[in-house]
Amino acid sequence: MIREFSEPPAAANVFDPLELDYLWFQDGNIVLSAVDAATARPVLFRVHMSSLASRSRVFNSMLSLPQGEDDEQTEVHEGSPLVRLPDSAEDVEALLRAIYDPYALFRRSPRSDTPLRVQKALHMASKYMMDDLCKRLISVVEQEWPLRLKDMELRDGILDDIIAKYGAYSSTEWPEQLIPEPASAIALAERYNIPSILPAAYYNLLRCNPNESWELTLRKVCSAGDTRFLVTGRGGKPARWECLSAASFLKLLQVQNFVESAQHKYFSFSLPQKIPGCLSLSQSRSCFHTWMRILDNSHRIPVHIHARDIFGQLRDLEVRMLNANMCYNCYPKYTDEIQRVKVRVWEGLEEICCL
Ligand SMILES: [Zn+2]
């Protein structure tokens, strides 16, 4: 894909650039130059001034300055003004690809690597004040994430169902219906201010296995057909732990502390309430007795405690209630109470994660 100038360099300081075929437009009217970080060689891109100026306040100001051919200050390459950028060629290429071929970024990968793929373009779009492109790149990340509690519950419910049916989720790919790899998403979100994905991302990371690296798992998947992503009711999902800052690890500990406290608070104190007006005929089988029995069962299941999954615990409670034969006075009130607890926990997560 790289078209190289035919003349070899006569000396180390000779301008001996590369041109990228797919970012070299014959009708382009500006040439951008940036240095390849690995080879220290200039790379040229011939693009359209209007494409840059209409998107970027920085380019708009820069390119609106007079640039006549007779201006001795203006460098020219193949008839077009040449602008040397201080950025790496990789970063410039990422930005231009996001402008000229944005749909490539929207294609999701079974590697769950969207934050890594949009990072360079987002850095450049932010630096050159391309507000609309920033929003579009952020939306690429946001569309992969559950932004509301009910969306997160739906995604986690899919995994619950698979694990309940087969004992574990096992695959050589990470499918798009499951929650993506969270650590790289958190790193991107905290750097470029995308708070909307953080509650679900931190909650998901809390249940990842700190001994399992996402990239190492992927490498094993690629090199050995029998090694897979493996998630059970006790967790096991790997993460790109290396992406996280010290501040993110601290926030993860705060989320862990919050979830553990919420499990104790709601299961021990808030939820065990008697609903007035029970219509059950038998005192020994009143809805309150039934409620306390299933509440106790859901609270004591070791897998919930180990997985720190209070939403999973509450979903389990809802399933148990379906089979509990409660009266029509008590059942909806206990169900509403479960929903209220879920909302309070989600709001608590938002408070910690979106600060
Ligand atoms: Zn009742």
TrEMBL record:
Please name the InterPro entries in this protein's record: BTB/POZ_dom, SKP1/BTB/POZ_sf
What protein am I looking at?
BTB domain-containing protein
Read off the Pfam families from this record.
BTB
Indicate the segments forming the BTB domain, all copies.
26-101
Q: Which PROSITE patterns match?
A: BTB
